[in-house]
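User: Please predict the structure of the protein below. I'd like the answer in structure-token form so I can feed it into my own downstream comparison script.

Assistant: Understood. Taking the following sequence of 111 residues as input:
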Amino acid sequence: MSFYGSETYFPPMETGLPGVRTPQELYRALLACYSIETCAPRLRTFWSSENPTLGQCSITSFLAQDLFGGEVWGVSLPEIGYHCFNRVGGRSFDLTSEQFCGKTLDYTFDH
């Protein structure tokens, strides 16, 4: 796992999706599903299979919220607008942080 917060322990939860009980399991499932069609329209010209999480933050964060609860927060990025991530039980995770190629965002901003 290489998303922000992947090292954080989240107790398994019943989500109604077989094999998806933690953010780590959701991440693995979504990697197999991401495509240019699921990418935010304004970022589709930049999407590639080498960077599959690009443009997937909103849909991913709201899906994670539906499954695990918590809140969706946003980090303002001048070049792209807001980038969404999740906070559950006081812990942050960003299933699409790989799109920033190793750059760690400041996940302490208010939403």
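That's the full token string. The mean pLDDT is 92.
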